[in-house]
Amino acid sequence: EKGGYDYFMLKEIAEQPQAIADTLRGRLTEHNEIALDEVRLTDQDLRDIDKIFIIGCGTSYNAGLVGKYAIEHWTRIPVEVELASEFRYRDPVLDRSTLVIAISQSGETMDTIMALRHAKEQKARVLAVCNTNGSTIPRESDGVLYTHAGPEIAVASTKAFVTQIIAVYLVGLHLAQIRGIKYSDEVAAIVDQLKATPDAVAEVLQTMEPVRKLARDLSGSQQVLFLGRHVGFPVALEGALKLKELAYMHAEGFAAGELKHGPISLIDDGVPVVITVPSPRGRSLLHDKIVSNIQEVRARGARTIVIAEEGDTAVEPYADHLIRVPRTTTLLAPLTTVVPLQVLACEIAAARGNDVDQPRNLAKSVTVE
Ligand code: M6R
């Protein structure tokens, strides 16, 4: 049932290209438009939206954080991302013209269910992004966009994460399209790149052997830090979450720009720091900033594990370990750069003798608040 893999998690990591392809299937036209008729919210509903909240827990929250960068950039609609468990307790400003996107793999997470009920009471429109047909969250939402990741058995979420990003991006592109905002060549080009992501992720999966070796090396570390900027920041949070839940190690993700505001004091001789680097093409300022962050932590003794795209030579002098991913645009990079972080967490956990698929104290679906 594990398809020849030692753990469900490894099987599910390997299924990501297929999961992405399945989530895109039927939703992109040959003219690079987005077809989301299934969403049940009318174009008029979507045109009236002036604010978006994305809510979720754990990995689903991290996918929402990635989504914010893309949706705001494409649609110019303000997006806030909030932990579902915090949302309803702080009296958020919601009304008919608010769209709440509730992200959940299981569709049964109680924190997210309670948050969506609160949103509905306040008359907001709720759209579920969910992997489980007919579960509570899509049933109680006004509309649903299913991720087609297939059943996810391992407690640690992997293929659900990448398909949630895809689904939220489709919502963003759809909104941009029907509102006629910024639906420019840039957006059409993104659709082409989306179609190429299954192959890009498959390529990353081919090169994971050195990551496995590195994982064995790191399995005795006290802590691992993760850094990123822009969409690399939620990827850092996701890498740290995976490592915490599976390896029971102290792991934290930071926005690289925050280092100097506190976290840099955690850096000591040999502390592993994983850094995802955005493409040097395009947003070069972002790239240059993170290269100097890599230098900063290395100068203080960190062991740098750098995830950078093919052809990025600027990082080479500062990387103790260099993991290459295929070239992509900044917004799509999380889909490839998260893969080595998933493999790293899985293999460190295995090296420490932990139960990879069923980490202690955790359940796949958290049905209590
Ligand atoms: O089923 P959901 O997406 O609503 O679950 C949310 C979180 O409980 C879940 O993502 C959790 O953080 C994972 N174990 C992370 O790997």
TrEMBL record:
Enzyme class: transferase
Keywords in alphabetical order: Aminotransferase, Cytoplasm, Glutamine amidotransferase, Repeat, Transferase
Superkingdom to which the source organism belongs: Bacteria
UniProt catalytic activity: D-fructose 6-phosphate + L-glutamine = D-glucosamine 6-phosphate + L-glutamate
Keyword Repressor attributed: no
Domain SIS: 42-181, 214-359
Subcellular location, record wording: Cytoplasm
Residues of the active site: K364
Quaternary structure note: Homodimer.
Chain's role: Catalyzes the first step in hexosamine metabolism, converting fructose-6P into glucosamine-6P using glutamine as a nitrogen source.
Protein name, as recorded: Glutamine--fructose-6-phosphate aminotransferase [isomerizing]
Native source species: Cryptosporangium japonicum
